[in-house]
Amino acid sequence: MTQRLLVVDDEESIITLLQFNLEQAGYEVETAMDGSTAFELAQSQHFDLIVLDLMIPEMDGLDVCKQMRLRKVMTPILMLTAKDDEFDKVLGLELGADDYMTKPFSPREVVARVRAILRRVGQIQEEQEGLNTINTVVRVGEVDIYPDNYEVHYKNQPLELTPKEFELLLYLANHKGRVLTRDQLLNAVWNYEFVGDTRIVDVHISHLREKIEPNTKKPIYIKTIRGLGYKLEEPHLDG
User: What domains are there in the chain, each with its CATH number?
Assistant: First the structure.
């Protein structure tokens, strides 16, 4: 089945360029030139990935991304930003973008990024289907992770996690007891080299601890291994 993409940009020349190259690469492409239209399409139709410009009218790219995730629309997003835009990549990725590129870019690079994101998403789905096809639950202490539903419960109460927080927690849980470096986590969860900038991992670990640790200063789930990275452990719970 042909994979469907939504390309969102307010410059007609960029829309035309990306649509042509992505269709040549074998994708079916829908387009939008403002945030409101993009948001409506993302909710009403199925897309395998969205290429989303940051600076678009009516709703900017960050707001579109944020509102999609709040409504549990988990379609992967490749964010486009102009080189001179003030853009905090940590903020964009925290809100649920899967990757970002700065303009100007080559169409070949966009196609390569799209393929990489879709390949990673496909691998995650295959891994989870391989673990268990019926009612998969990954349990660590009082944390229950439901990969099929993108849900996490802590002490039987649902947690609100961003897509990347969820994927990071699931990866840690699937490698419980193993020390994972920040670079390993970057490559596994974001599938992107951040040129040594590992703060995105630290930020997400901090957010996860706020949601699952009884005491963030003395974590019992996600341990920091000084000089190496992080490790998720089965906690020793009283009673």
Answer: 4-127 (3.40.50.2300), 133-232 (1.10.10.10)
String of b and e for 194-229 (b: at least 16 CB within 10 Å)?
A: beeeeebbebbbeebbeebbeeeeebbbbeeeeeeb
How confident is the prediction for the chain on average, in pLDDT?
86
Cα 189 from Cα 187, distance rounded (Å): 6
Which tokens hold the place of 140? 């660590």
Q: Per residue in 77-103, is it b (16+ CB within 10 Å) or e — as a string?
A: bbbbbeeeeebebeebbbbbbbbbeeb
* Cα(17)–Cα(81) distance, integer angstroms: 16
pLDDT digits (tens, 9 = 90+) for 76-131: 999 998 765 556 666 777 777 888 888 888 999 999 989 988 887 777 666 656 55
Nearest to 110 by CA among 10, 19, 188, 42: 19
Alpha-carbon distance of 75 to 221, in angstroms, equals 29
139, containing H or E segment: strand 138-140
CB atoms within 10 A of CB 58: 14
Q: Radius of gyration of the chain from Cα atoms? A: 19
Q: Is the pTM of this model over 0.70?
A: no
In sequence order, the 6+-apart residues with CB closer than 8 A to the CB of 138 are 131, 144, 145, 146, 147, 170, 173, 174
Mean pLDDT of the 158-171 span: 88
